[in-house]
Amino acid sequence: MKQDPSGNPASGQRPEGGARRQILDAAAALLRQGYDATTTREIAARVGIKAGSIYHHYPSKEAIVSAVVNEGVRVVHEAVTGALAALGSSASPRERMQAAIKAHLLSSLEHSAYTSASIRAFAFLPAAVQEDCRVERRRYEEIWRGLVTEAAAAGLLAPGVSQDAVRLLLLGAVNWAGEWYRPERMSIDEIARDFAASILR
Q1: Spatial distance between the Cα atoms of 162 and 54, rounded to a whole number of angstroms
Q2: In a domain, 37, yes or no
């Protein structure tokens, strides 16, 4: 995996398999308990290796956390862009919005450890790690900015409603769905439909 000058994985680089993936899987699970609780010693214990062995794969705890958070964003980014591409150019703004919501939910709920880690840990990360992770987050947010702009142009937003507010509301809703989602309560299709209906006229 390539690294930026700070020792963090470069944005856009995927984690490799084997030991690297095991380390990230362990870190993602631990990050749900908080950044401070995620130590290299705890990560190593979960993987079943000596703590010092981690540094053969990642230079620091910060590099591991950065990789986990970026991976959590990449997973949903690729799912949403894939779903939108599959719709084709004839899809309406409403169809595109609902498809994006559904793809995000499906992807994030199926990869809940990485997604939850990305959401829960970000505010507590060191500033340098936050800055590295913002690159992926901003790339993903641009998709939603475009979807909301399309919806506004089609007259699907209430007059006077801020597009930024709609985008932030949607991202907050889909990001935190994992905290309350229960498949027996409501299907992902139903959630996507109702989220879109709550935003669009």
Answers
A1: 46
A2: no
